[in-house]
Design brief:
The two termini are 42 Å apart. Helix content is 2%, strand content 32%. It is built from 3 helices and 40 strands.
């Protein structure tokens, strides 16, 4: 969370980090492995040697003004007419308790099985946890199908009133209904869906409570046993007053301290025993590290071997990359991947993450959002193990460096077949004007359009929401109104959420519901190759996690651009099987089920609507 604010190094400090003995990630982790320089796209530098993690990230040098893309992607904000009355509560107070800066996510979940995406909003609260609070707690809103929602929290039994950062969605008990997993300060919570629109709290004896300051989570079946496991990120070792006091007392300006004032905490890989109880296998899987202030995580196959890997954003620590070996363990490629630090070799203040093939070569790039002046980083996938910071070449530095980035997506927002880039922003401090700094807390969201080659250009007029400023944190992406394009839901700090309905120009698409054989839950980890007329192939994956502390649409929406025909869809399933759907109709949803055993015929698919 909060990295340093602008000017923080020159600011008087009440209790300096040095006096507290703040631990840097470099101090309590092995030296990163040397990373060879590799050739990247024009204008990029080779990957340097081990990053000097204890040095501050330099300011980004001035760049020429970035051109803006003519309006091709446009959203309309409908929050006021949606019926959603939820309001987030950060818990921010004069004491600037460190966790209150991080905010919360939002989940898209069809909780009642009616085929429409409902909304579950997380919130934090005042600290300490036993203090009085003005928080109304988490809220669940049922989608009525007309872009309005009704509050069903009490009926569903999911009105958690603790300090909730993140939400992961998955069918953890294999009953065919999506469950909720909440990552918190003060112990995580598991709500299991009964299948009748209500949930039961199954945290006790589940083994999933963790009991630390946890941030986010991703659902994945890492061991291919048919049960959804969890990777849980944790931030640091918190106690009241952790991090010290920063700011200028003479000016009455207390601010959040640097993340380096917080000792990092371990993360968890939780293996599902098959009954929604979990065992901690982090060390046995070879990925127990204690040098990551964890926030966002995405589970995706980054090296094309059919196994789900993990990429984790850490705050002023190396971003973790764990490659699945297929035997219940992972290779920790963090030090040698090139995706642990910026191209200049500095550990950045990571928040949100995503993985998607932005250049059409079939390999997913990695993306992480960062603090002001760090810039958001796009890593080109060289060979599935080695990645290159191409942020400058891709054209995203100038319009990301001024802001603090959180929720994000590499997603095709205009259905032209190329993933675009959207990041929601918002500073952590709300009082920097008292220090003479012109750095407001509210910041605009930024949307870049993919120009069709992995290069991006900022969209000049994406709608009124993008012309105003907000204090945003979590963001979830999915088709709320089932009209064939991706909408966005944003959880804003101490404010009502924003609902952005996609009103971009219409283009061809197909939607794929990829389901396991039994009981028919979303097949997280499946990948598809969509072959369209003209010989083009579009690659997509059904990922776990992603964005910032949020959960996205569990269906794959694949934009086809001007293509009027799909020749076939090849699917590689989480259990290693493959199937093919021949000639699916466009502008329809197709439901495919994972073959149970080898030798089954190719899936014919079901056109659901």
């Amino acid at each position: 969370m909060p990295p340093r604010s602008p000017g923080r190094r020159a600011r008087p400090i009440l209790l300096a980090i040095a006096l507290f003995g703040g631990v840097s990630c470099r101090d309590n982790s092995p030296d990163p492995l040397p990373r060879p320089a590799v050739a990247g796209p024009p204008g990029t530098a080779g990957i340097p040697a081990a990053p000097p993690a204890d040095r501050p990230t330099p300011k980004v040098p001035p760049a020429r003004p970035a051109a803006t893309e003519p309006t091709t992607i446009r959203f309309r904000e409908v929050g006021e007419s949606s019926g959603i009355a939820f309001r987030h509560r950060s818990g921010n107070s004069p004491s600037k308790e460190f966790p209150t800066a991080n905010g919360s996510g939002v989940a898209l979940i069809d909780h009642d099985g009616d085929g429409r995406l409902d909304l579950y909003f997380a919130t934090t609260r005042e600290l300490p946890l036993d203090a009085p609070t003005t928080s109304q707690g988490n809220r669940l809103y049922r989608n009525r199908g007309d872009r309005t929602f009704e509050d069903v929290t009490a009926r569903a039994g999911v009105g958690f009133r603790g300090f909730n950062h993140g939400v992961a969605v998955g069918d953890f008990d294999n009953n065919g209904h999506p469950d909720l997993y909440l990552t918190n300060l003060g112990g995580n919570v598991l709500y299991l869906n009964r299948g009748d629109g209500t949930f039961r709290d199954a945290t006790k004896d589940s083994g999933a409570g963790c009991g630390l300051w946890c941030s986010g989570a991703a659902a994945l079946d890492y061991d291919r046993d048919g049960d959804l496991d969890l990777y849980v990120t944790c931030y640091g070792k918190y106690f009241p007053g952790a991090g010290g006091e920063c700011g200028d007392p003479k000016k009455g300006a207390r601010t959040y301290c640097s993340p380096r004032s917080i000792n990092p905490e371990r993360h968890f890989l939780l293996r599902n025993r098959g009954d929604a109880t979990f065992e901690d296998v982090t060390e046995a899987a070879g990925i127990l590290r204690t040098d990551g202030r964890g926030l966002g995580v995405v589970a995706a196959d980054v090296n094309g071997d059919g196994l789900v890997d993990l990429y984790v954003a850490n705050d002023l620590c190396p971003h973790f990359l764990f490659l699945n070996k297929g035997d219940g363990t992972f290779d920790d490629e963090t030090g040698s991947s090139g995706a642990a630090a910026s191209g200049s070799g500095y550990y950045q203040a990571g928040m949100g993450v995503d993985a998607e093939d932005v250049d059409g070569d079939g390999r997913p790039e990695l993306f992480a959002t960062h603090f002001r002046e760090d810039y958001n980083t796009l890593y080109r996938n060289i060979d599935g193990r080695l990645f290159q910071d191409i942020s400058s070449w891709a054209g995203i530095i100038k319009d990301s460096a001024p802001y603090v980035g959180w929720g994000c997506a590499l997603a095709d927002l205009d259905n032209d077949g190329w993933p675009d880039m959207l990041v929601v922003n918002g500073h952590v401090d709300d009082n920097l004007a008292l220090l003479g700094l012109n750095v407001p807390q509210a910041e605009p969201a930024v949307l870049w359009r993919n120009r069709g080659n992995g290069k991006f250009r900022r969209v000049g007029d994406a709608g009124p929401y993008f012309a105003t400023s907000h204090v945003a944190r979590g963001a979830a992406f999915g088709d709320l109104d089932d009209d064939g394009d991706l909408d966005v839901v944003i959880n804003r700090m101490d404010d009502h959420p924003a609902l952005l309905i996609n009103e971009s120009a219409s283009a061809s698409w197909i939607r794929l519901e990829l389901l396991t054989t039994q009981p028919g839950r979303p097949a997280v980890g499946a990948s598809v190759a969509v072959h369209v007329e003209g010989g083009r192939t579009i690659h997509r994956q059904l990922k776990g996690g992603g964005s910032y502390l949020s959960s996205n649409d569990p269906r794959l929406l694949v934009g086809l651009g001007k293509a009027g025909r799909v020749d076939r869809v090849d699917v590689r399933w989480p259990n290693g099987e493959r199937s093919t759907l021949e000639g699916p109709a466009i502008r329809q949803t197709h439901r495919l089920r994972e073959p149970a055993t080898r030798g089954l015929p190719a899936a014919a698919g079901e056109a659901s609507r």
